[in-house]
Amino acid sequence: MSAEPITTFESSLEEVGVELVRTSTDQFESTLIPLLSTPAVGAPLPFENVSLPDAVETDPGVEELEAAKTGVTAAGYGIAEYGSVIIQGGPDGEEPASLYADEHVAVVAGSDVLPDMDATFDRLAEDIRSDAGQAIIATGPSATADMGALVKGAHGPVEVTVVLLEDR
Amino acid sequence: MSVDTRQRKAERIRHLLETEGDSVHKNTQVFNNGRYESTADLEDYEELKDEARAIKEDAIERLPELVNQVTETVEANGGTVYIADDAADANRYVTEVADGRDVVKSKSMTSEEIEVNESLEASGSDVWETDLAEFVLQVADEAPSHIVAPAIHKSREEIAELFNAYFEPEKPLETAQELTQFAREYLGEKFVDAEVGMTGANFVTADTGTLALVTSEGNARKCVQATDTHVAVAGVEKIIPRVEDLQPFVELIGRSGTGQDITSYVSLFTPPGDSPTFDVDDELGSGDEREFHLVLIDNGRMEMREDDQLRETLYCIRCSACANSCANFQHVGGHAFGGETYSGGIATGWEAGVHGADSAAEFNDLCTGCSRCVNQCPVNIDIPWINTVVRDRINRGKDGDLDFLVKGLTPDEEPGGVDLQKRLFGNFDTLAKLGSAFAPLSNWVAQAGPARSLMERTLGVDSRRELPEFERESLVEWFKNRGPQVDPEEARRQVALYPDAYTNYVRTERGKAAIRVLEALDVRVDVPSAGESGRAPLSQGMVATAQSNAEDVYDALAPAVAAGHDVVVVEPSDLAMFHREYERLLPEDNYTALKNHSYEILEYVYGLLENGADINALPDGDDMQIAYHSHCQQRTLNLEPYTLAVLEDCGFDVRTSDVECCGMAGSFGYKSEYYELSIDVGETLVDQFTTENTADRTVVASGTSCLEQLDALLTRRPAHPVRLLDT
Sorted alphabetically, which Pfam families does this protein's record hold (chain A) (predicted)? Predict the structure, then answer.
């Protein structure tokens, strides 16, 4: 793996049809707002001094989830080689927020972009042993070829965007 | 097998070729090409396969211990583990847990194996398959035709027709996009209503109780999140020791299956999960009370584990590479090439172990042993061998009523119950010997109308096939009269040319050409009188006869090997015997000695040229336009490049085919029940050799079967490539 996991991450994401948007802690909100289509849902972000704008509903019901255009959640880490993000679900509702909306916006800290599967599984094993109940290795939007041709957006999002907090 | 049974089989295959063949072919090609591309990009592909294999070997070895460990872990996490002895036991437990509540399911072949939907519905549950392909099949009331893409046999048009008739939407559905959107919305309500979510598991880790689910649609995630009770059903063989062990599988499974580097979602759940779930009032409520039941299913697996031949099947990760890389499967699909639940090459092992020999016997003959799946399997399972062993067991399982008839008449080692058709093809050596002794009379009689119709009725030899014509003088006899031509003192190397049964009795011209080409390169050639390699009986599941042939061949070639000579083989399927199957048929030292000293003819020529032999001793190709079809087993041994390189170095202009198999596959294409499938497979090769660029090229092929198939389907007469080098 190169010394530049983020460059690799960006090109891997591009291959699976995901845009990488770079930002920093203080620019986060102004970066996110243009990416939102409303109604938007989300789960609270775990990064210090980073929070979701009010337009993002963090306690949605079924109707709001199903109507949501955008779902914003944190992603535990990224895998540069594959263009994947790890969605860790929990009581805060990362799982439904990342799954029902048309577009999933995943927020990843720059220091959490891991080079490859080796590094990822070292970390996954550690997390799972310390009680992380869920880790979805998500790569690109949901997809199916079951209806006779490849369709993006099956039961999950049609589109995925990764927002990278470069100073985290 | 009776005439009627053969006819029924042929009709069933014909029907599937007409109705499902096109969709299956198109879709498996995408997976097959995708796999080649995606695995080529993986730097440490072979190492990952070895690693995956080692993990599975270890896990199955320690399975009872791992079952105990995962039980403790899951229970410590707050879930429940139930070990089900068989399908009925599993279904009883699952229906008790569901207790009449509505169920949403993600795709699980294991749940197909136990037929849990029927049990759940009988106990009052509404059950919805949420994987879109499974949903299509649920609506159509059909069985999966592929273990990964269960509705692979259906075209978009057929699905649209089905949905429009069944759901009567206001605006008729047409595109894949519209069909997907419709299904998503329809099933969206089912997720909200359901209280029980059922999933399978691709892997279960014993140390943490983590389930790995490899999916793309997102429905498995919804099945878990949207419900209060998560029930996962998995065969006991899915357990692996540690979370870290998942890594090679995560890197291999998508590539090996659908040809994706990784699927959209590889979900690692360590249940019970605490994501918010849907309350009765459609709000998102706490998921803290979610129940989790892991149902581990034995259903024959622990017995497979004790079975030295079937144990490897338990290493299977159900990726479908063996189906996608199989020429027969590509053309006819899993509704023919499958048993009660599983389909494709490895299905023979699963069906034999889980449902019994009768289910395996339904389709086991569709594996021709071409071996194209062998290098594709991410856990290195010798899938053709499993098919051979199960075929042998099926042969032996039949009663021996015919013993009185065959005793003393056939030279083989098999019991009386073996099907006459299999016995005929399995004893090709004897047949060829007799045919040659009485040629040309034997050829005239065999080709005559009355003989052909008798052979079709009694032996199932299709009368639309031309039979091989035996030469009166065998290659061994010819060589005995002629003698070696190169002085051993001056020879570059000394070789024993192995006279396989076809080269010896039927296509002697390629044997003579091979001898002359070697001699032109200063090699002293001898042709020992060695019998059939065992390939013919092995392909009929007659393992004992194959072993006896192998021992005789070894005895005939051992003096040459002991003298430090090389063994050169013209027929790739026989070289493949020496290199692959003899490992199971001969003592280890003998196997290794023969393997290390035996070469395919053009591989050997390549080696001679690389080591100083003069290429000018061979004819100049002068840009002659050639279309070359390598042989399936030759390609599995990675020997195609040598023929190509030698021909190109000699100045020929070569195009190659890329089909997995010619469809003839030894005796397969002669069998009346499989004739039409064999032709259908062959047509794909013919298509490649009748394009604008290839239609006028001289056709060469390395395998006897390939030559026969091409001869039957092309107007050009094909030959073995060594004949291009024979002056």
Answer: LUD_dom
Same domain, yes or no: B595 and B643: no
Answer for the pair B261, B254: CB distance below 8 angstroms, yes or no: yes
User: pLDDT value at position B401?
Assistant: 44
Region B290-316 average pLDDT: 97
Give Cβ neighbours of residue B314 (< 8 Å, ≥ 6 apart): B56, B60, B237, B301, B304, B305
Helix (H, G, I), strand (E, B) or coil at B270: coil
Q: Which of B553, B584, B617 delimits the end of a domain?
A: B617
For B460-493, give the DSSP string: -B-TTSPPPPPPSS-HHHHHHHH---S-TTT-SE
Chain A positions touching B147 (Cβ under 8 A) are none
Instruction: Please give the domain boundaries of chain A with CATH numbers for all domains.
Output: 5-165 (3.40.50.10420)
Same domain, B601 and B657: no
Within its chain, how far is the Cα of B405 from the centroid? 34
Q: Where are the beta strands (DSSP E) in B65-201?
A: 80-84, 103-105, 127-129, 196-199
Are A134 and B287 in contact (CB < 8 Å)?
no
What's the rounded Cα separation, in Å, for the pair B453 and A108?
73
| Chain A residues touching B180 at Cβ < 8 A | 144, 146-147, 151, 153-154
**Nearest partner of B426 among B405, B436, B411, judged by Cα:** B411
CATH number of the domain where residue B128 is located: 3.40.50.10420
Instruction: Report d(CA B44, CA B95) in Å as an integer.
Output: 44
C-alpha closest to that of B17 among B711, B682, B693: B682
Contacts of A157 (CB under 8 A, 6+ apart): A71, A98, A99, A101, A102, A103, A104, A141, A142, B218
| Residues A129, B208: C-beta atoms closer than 8 Å | yes
**Domain co-membership, B598 together with B637:** no
- Which residues 91-110 in chain A show a CB within 8 A of chain B? 91, 93-96, 99
- From A60-69, B58-67, B241-250, B548-557, the region with the lowest mean pLDDT: A60-69
- Confidence band, pLDDT 50/70/90 cuts, at residue A3: very low
Q: Rounded to an integer, what distance in angstroms lies between the CA atom of residue B692 and that of residue B654? A: 14
d(C-alpha B440, C-alpha B359), whole Å: 43
Of B572, B593, B617, the residue at which a domain comes to its end is B617
Q: Is B157 on the interface with A (CB under 8 A)?
A: yes
Q: Is the pLDDT of residue B607 over 90?
A: yes
CA dist., res. B165 & res. B607, Å (int): 64
Taking CB atoms and an 8 Å cutoff, what residues of chain B touch A143? 216-217, 264
Q: Which domain holds residue B68?
A: 3-301
Pair B558, B630 in one domain? no
Look at residue B158 and tell me if it is in a domain: yes
Q: Taking the CA atoms of chain B, what radius of gyration do you get in angstroms? A: 28
Helix axes B45-61, B246-257, angle to 10 degrees: 120
Q: B496-546: per-residue pLDDT in tens?
A: 999 999 999 999 999 999 999 999 999 999 999 999 999 999 999 999 999
Instruction: Specify the CATH number for the domain of residue B721.
Output: 3.40.50
What pLDDT sits at residue A2?
Answer: 42
B287 and B217 assigned to the same domain: yes
- Joined together, the tokens standing for residue B669 give 């294409």
Q: Does B286 touch chain A (CB under 8 A)?
A: yes
Say how many domains are in chain B. 3
Residue B325 lies in a domain: no
Same domain, B225 and B283: yes
Closest residue, chain A, to B242 (C-alpha): A125
